[in-house]
Amino acid sequence: MSHRLRIAPVSTRDGDLSRRQFLAATAGALAAGTLTAGAAGAQSNRPPRTDVKVGISVDPVTPGDPRLVSGGLGGLSQAINHVYETLVVRDERMQSAAGLAERWAQPSPTTLRLFLRKGVKFHNGEPFDAQSVKYTIDSVLAPGSRSVWRSQIQAIKEVAIVDPHTVDVKTERPYRPLVRMIANVPIVPAKAAQDLGDKLATTPIGTGPFLHGEYVSGDHWTVRANPGYWGPKPRIQELTWRYVRDDGARVAALLAGDVDVINNVPPDQIARLKASERVTVESVVSTFIIHVGMRTDRPPFNDRRVRQALNYAVNKEAIVEKLLAGVGRVSDSPLAPTLPYRQSFGAWPYDPDKARALLKDAGYDGKARPVVFGTAVGRYIKDREVGEAISGYLQAVGFEHRFETPDWPSYFAEVMGGGRSKYDMFLLGYGPQSMEPDQLLSFGFQSAPNLNASAYKNPQVDALLAEGREAFDEARLRATYGSLTRLIWEDAPWIWLHYQPEITGFARALQGYRPRADSFWYLAKASW
After folding, report:
1. In sequence order, what DSSP letters do the residues of 164-175 get, joined into one string?
2. Which CATH number fits domain 85-192: 3.30.70.920, 3.30.70.270, 3.30.420.40, 3.90.76.10?
3. What does pTM read for this prediction?
4. Domain 285-501 CATH assignment equals 3.10.105.10
5. How many CA atoms lie within 13 A of 424 on its CB side?
6. Predicted pLDDT of residue 15
């Protein structure tokens, strides 16, 4: 039972109480139950917290070289966003805004001129300048580079230094998406990166509002406020990213106050969290499209009829309603609703009879080489359960396969291993945080092995992708992307599932933080 604080005045013949008498009287009131815990808390005048603890579903593994780590939902990338910065950022409306480049211009269709901020320094004191921009982009594009950003900026042919704070980024052909795409590439210090080599992965040095603090493998990564940050100083002095893989454990940790923010809130736990006085839940439609990729260079997926059959075989509406509690949205286009130039083609309907007929028409009998279907655990909302449901639907139409659920790092490395990957089918989510449709469509469907885990090749798709990159006229872009996405949708290199919402749980008292459509977390403005 709780009571409101009430301390009855205590009088003596001498008037005011001494400090010792007051403390004795207060202790007596507590013993008698007339002074409540709330009162004691009010008397303590505790200063506001200056730390935030985040529970993430993916093991950071190491702090990481930002050139090798992708953005969005991964726990590691979310922490890296606070340590490293990009030339261009996205504001709350998902529009391109000034980052390390304070402005930009387009002197010609093949040249993007970037005017860099002056007076910015990396955490080790090294100046941020044109040389660090050139070094970063050149290293991402270098032959043999393993950078996840290489495919997104490969149109760049040269970075020319105009002066210490101006660079020209040049492309062979006109490249409309460049400003949005370059917003994904974190800038590293040229000298330190060269001196450290692979050790940069465990010694992060950025220009961001937070500094690398402490890393414990498989447990947490702590970053601390950068007192020399060039922009508004963060109010939070310490951020700790804790690895909590299990959905139930993350929810319990949030409710108990062990963490203050969690990702991938299970949809069936939303009502429970909202009922709490301490925490709440918010969600936004993200750019992520959850899908099952199929290796189109391997039988039986080299037959379009088989790919279409599996799209009919899976009840996407049931997955969204039962596993996502109706929070998600069934895919009706290769592009999420938040992206420009999107057209809806209507979801693939659930029709197991048609699936069986198409499999039969394709000559599929299940006796060919065994198919391996994999999904990760904890990377996407209810990913294990979604994978299990899909496996059941495929079995129901007679499609034989083996189902596996490895940890995310080994799974993703295997899926992106090209022709050597053991997975013939793989559940993934992908969305362009840049808000640029070319990022998703090139990654998923361009005829290049380093982009396309499904090994999908279609000359018509390649031609339309090129047209979309070079066009600047809005009407032409709408027509081009309409034709392109319809072609991909009907060719079905993926089993189209749903657009994943970004569902985040966080303490009600935490101010200055809200989930974003690009799935990035920014806590530099957070406070209690």
Report:
1. TTEEEEEESS--
2. 3.90.76.10
3. 0.75
4. yes
5. 17
6. 36
